[in-house]
Amino acid sequence: MGFSVAEAECLIAPPYVLAALWMFGCAWYGDKWHIRAPFIIVNAFMGIIGLCLLGFAKNNGARYFGVFLAVTSANSNVPCILTYQANNSK
To 10 degrees, the CA torsion angle through 64, 81, 23, 18? Predict the structure, then answer.
């Protein structure tokens, strides 16, 4: 994307902060409402959109937004999928 090493290091933290907040929100609401699949589906679509932006967008701002979507999707699906699997095996 053309950033210096120092700029790239500073730009890597915000997507993970958003991912942590979104992950805790998905986990909390999924546990409160006893549903997991809608959160998994929404996160999967968010990941698809983010990866498409990363791969095909020419604007650096759009590509960085794609990083936010892809990182958030990948990290927030972990507790949803693990809990879904744990609840379905007896």
Answer: 0
